């Protein structure tokens, strides 16, 4: 190590750090294993001092550790160099809880969403506090948050997607996911904000107790007898659409219809 490097404590100069930082192209995604934990209230101590509960500190460390492991996996440099996101940021979080062995009927009535505690805002706050300034310079850069609290098959976990914010203008035909979900197994247009493109997909049941978003990788066709679109869809937790829209019905072949059934 050179004398100049020793004077800097072994750290690279800023211009060398910049060359070793790989900026995110698209979205940065990572998963925190384990049951989602909400942000706990500060606990009072002696002399009117307050401290963060141990359970909260451990959960925040798990979030940061999972993000750091994903950064190394993707060949990204964490906070040692310039922040990866310098402008407004969109954060998508999916909190997946284990499917309860009882009251499955009640869960299905709520479309698979978990409507009991922990509260969604406290779950989101723990994730953001756990990340700290690892991905951005200031928490104020988080411009939009899209969060879901649901039951899902498999092990409980927290799925986080961070990307540069996009200003999206949708026509009135598109419905926001947070306002209305598409019917189960109905093939629709789904807008995926992480790629900025609509895709064909659906919301399909998994193990008859929960549902996942699914993308139609193969062909899709119109079932004339059922009067609806069909598709070979593949479900995956990676799909997190923000909007959806019904597919239009195909043109009607009037020559194949009796005259009395012609549209008027």
Descriptors:
264 residues; alpha+beta; 60s Ribosomal Protein L30, Chain: A; 2 domains; six-stranded antiparallel sheet; 5 helices; disordered N terminus
Q: Which class of secondary structure composition applies to the elements?
A: alpha+beta
What is the overall number of helices? 5
What is the CATH class name of the largest domain? Alpha Beta
How do the SSEs run, as a string of H and E? Answer: HHEEEHEHHEEEEEEEE
Shape: globular
Count of discrete domains: 2
Summarize the structure.
The protein is an alpha+beta fold and 264 residues long.
Polypeptide structure, described:
The chain is an alpha+beta fold and 264 residues long. It folds into 2 domains: 24-167, 60s Ribosomal Protein L30, Chain: A; 168-249, no CATH class. It has 5 helices and 12 strands. The strands form 3 sheets. It has a 6-stranded antiparallel beta sheet with strand order 7-12-8-9-10-11, with no helix packed on it. It has a 4-stranded mixed beta sheet with strand order 1-6-4-5, with helices on one face. A hairpin with a 4-residue loop joins β10 and β11. The radius of gyration is 23 Å and the shape is globular. It starts with a helix and ends in an 18-residue tail after the last strand.
